[in-house]
Amino acid sequence: MVTRPAIVGLGFRAHSGWAAVVAVKGPASSPMVVDRRRIELADPAIRGSVQPFHAAAELNRAEAEEFIKQHANSTNALALQCVRQLIDDLCQQGYQAIGTCILAASGRPLGTLDSILASHPMIHTAEGEFFREAIRHASEACGLPVTRMKEREILSSGAAELGLRPEELQRRMLELGQPMGPPWRQDEKLATLAGWLILARA
Length: 202
What we know:
Blueprint: E1 6-15, E2 18-25, E3 32-40, H1 52-56, H2 61-92, E4 95-104, H3 113-117, H4 120-141, E5 146-150, H5 154-162, H6 166-176, H7 186-201
Parallel strand pairs: 1-4, 4-5
Antiparallel strand pairs: 1-2, 2-3
Helix pairs in contact: 2-4, 5-6, 5-7
C-alpha cells in the first residue's frame, strides 16, 4: 500500500535580500510546523544586490534598466534554487508542498522605472516587490500556485477563515513555533499563518 505524502503550505515574508519561509503541515484543524528557514535572495558578490533600486538610482536611465535586469536574473535564480531545495527536503521527509502564500505590502502600485527612482519611498516599495516577485517566479516554476495576502490584513483574515478569535490565533502562532526553538519572531509567526491559510484553502 502506497502512503500518500502529507500536504504542507509554504508561507514567505520577504525582506531586502532574504526571506523567512515556514512550511506548515496539515490538516488545517491541527497544523504543525515542519520546516523553518531563511533563504538568501541576494548574491553578496554582486554590488547592490541587497538593495538594487537604491544602487540603480545612482545610474543613468539606460544603465539603471540594465542593472535591474541583471540583478533580477541573479535573484530569480537564487530564489528558484532555494525553493527547489526546500521542496526536495520536504519530499524526503514525506511531505508534499501544495502552494505558496507571499505576504505583501500595502503600498500603492509601482509606476515606471523613472518614477520609482525619482521617489525614495517608491524605491523601498519596489525593492520589496522585487524580492517577492522572485519568490513568486520560483514557486510557479516549481508548480506551486501562489497566493498573495496583504500583511496588515492577514491576522483578521486568518481569524475569520480559521474560526478563531484574534487573540487565540496569536497564541496558536506562538505555540506552533515552540517545537522549532528560536528564532521565532514576527517573520516566522506571520509566515506560519500564511502557510496555514494555504492548508485551510486547499
